[in-house]
Amino acid sequence: MSADLETILIYLQRRYNILREVCSLTEELAEAVERGDTVSASLLLDMRGEQLQRHADCEEQIILQTAGNSLRDRYLRDLAKGPLMNVKSCFKGKTEREKMLEKRIEDLRCRTEKLLDKIRRIDGGLNRRISKNR
Questions:
Q1: CA-to-CA distance for 99 and 81, rounded, in angstroms?
Q2: 61-78: per-residue pLDDT in tens?
Q3: For residues 65 and 80, what is the distance between their CA atoms, to the nearest angstrom?
Q4: Where are the alpha helices (DSSP H) in the chain?
Q5: 8 Å CB contact between 90 and 98
Q6: How many other CB atoms sit within 10 Å of the CB of residue 108?
Q7: How far apart are CA 63 and CA 48, in angstroms?
Q8: What is the pLDDT of residues 117-133, one digit of tens each?
Q9: Residue 134 vs residues 27, 108, 122, 127, 129: alpha-carbon distances, Å
Q10: 26 and 119 in contact (C-beta within 8 Å)?
Q11: 74-113, pLDDT tens digit by residue?
């Protein structure tokens, strides 16, 4: 089971790193739009699109890793993609290593949620700014 948890952790870390890049590009895009720099905005949108495709590919890998109906698959799916409040209930009856990996997954998922909220907030501001300018 530890190997499965490590694999999920690797994919979630990859996802987080991709989203950090998306966030950075989104911030740069907001600055370019604020300046009225359409050339930079266009390039940043393309770069952001590439990162979002990488994110989609990573999400697909997570889904493939947790596909199936066995207890193990459902456990991994809940851990990787389920509501964060369900993660804590996964800790029962595990080895210390598994508990440590689960805790790292929980922490990473919390950081990812905060990052997604930040991206959504910036996107919302961009959408309002662009709609207002039309």
A1: 17
A2: 999 999 989 888 888 898
A3: 10
A4: 2-35, 38-65, 71-81, 84-87, 96-133
A5: no
A6: 16
A7: 22
A8: 999 999 999 999 888 87
A9: 21, 39, 19, 11, 9
A10: yes
A11: 888 988 998 877 665 555 678 889 889 999 999 999 999 9
